[in-house]
Amino acid sequence: MHQTDIIIIGAGPTGLFAVFEAGLLRLKCHLIDTLPQVGGQLVELYPKKPIFDIPGYPSVEASELVDNLMEQIKQFQPQFALGETAMTIDKNDDGTFVVTTDKGTQVKGKAVAIAGGLGTFEPRKPELTNIEFYENKGVEYFVKQPERYAGKHVVIAGGGDSALDWSIYLAEVAASLTLVHRRNEFRGALASVEKVKALKEAGKINLKTPYEVVGLAGDEKLEHLILEKDGGERETIAADYFIPLFGLTPKLGPIATWGLEIEKNAIKVNNALDYQTNIEGIYAIGDVNTYPGKLKLILCGFHEATLMCQSVYNRLFPNRKYVLKYTTVAGVDGFDGSRKEAEKAVVKSI
């Protein structure tokens, strides 16, 4: 059985940053994730997508952010169980926890931080009778390797941020890029909408609104799409790839059976203190949690991870007063809140 201080369920950006904050306090972490690699949604859904709201980065690719987080935490030597799903959590009489995965791996820890993002998720698929036939033959629900669309005729459907962002990105890659949306108005960021309109004026995006994709055609793979305009007019366009981006249907999976208080498919936490759940010692941070005023942003997940780690430290060493020091002053190795000093303080108090 593996032993650690904090068991982190989810190796996305919030879970990875929690390792850094825990490391500053000399707390060890063991991360468990269903995906075979770290990074969560950033790597699984949009590794090449630029992110604009990370402090200090005017723009950073999702996969680059994950690489940087891994570089930041390697000094603290976290342990990983990747490609494994956390199935059960058992709380021992001494307040410790044992998490067991679907592969039989067991990890014992003094606290649990659930950083599972959206949990398990499935793409919302358009209701087209033959869409399953064309899956992996031209129909894609995620953009993982943008370079594969170079020189191809690509059609994206959707009106949210993902559809807008990928249309902007792939307009510079594909032979042709068509964005289809059933309304004239978009739900995404205004800056992205304006960029799409500018690319349309420049002839780099074929914008079709208000239209819907109503049919797919091709013998062995996708070759054409049938579009229908609001009002019934139809047209056929060439397409090597059709990427419907209508969002995801999240599911908590086994997490929903752990006795946690759930609200609208998310875990309720005490945001006034430390993002602890209704079970003492189990925390939920990042997109997986909910509380009044919750914002599902990576930045907010980083903040929640920081306060969670402080709370765990105070639970493990209640007799030691932790004095916050800035890393600009103490560095990473210079924190006086180390495990050894904390343990000395506990022993001395006894």
Structure, explained:
- InterPro entries: FAD/NAD-bd_sf (IPR036188), FAD/NAD-binding_dom (IPR023753), Fd--NADP_Rdtase_type_2 (IPR022890), Ferredoxin-NADP_redctase_2 (IPR050097).
- Helices cover 25% and strands 26% of the residues.
- It has 9 helices and 23 strands.
- Strand 8 and strand 9 form a beta hairpin.
- The chain is elongated, with a radius of gyration of 23 Å.
Short description:
By secondary structure, the chain is an alpha/beta fold. Helices cover 25% and strands 26% of the residues.
Strand content: 25-35%
Distance between the ends? 30 Å
Q: pLDDT under 50 segments (min length 5)? A: 342-350
**Main sheet: strand order:** 6-3-2-10-22
Cα Rg: 23 Å
Q: Count of helices?
A: 9
Content-based structural category: alpha/beta
Query: How would you sum up the global shape?
Result: elongated
Q: Mean of residue pLDDT?
A: 89
Helix percentage: 25-40%
Cofactor: FAD
EC number: 1.18.1.2
GO molecular function: ferredoxin-NADP+ reductase activity; flavin adenine dinucleotide binding; NADP binding
Binding site for FAD: 14, 33, 41, 46, 86, 121, 287, 328
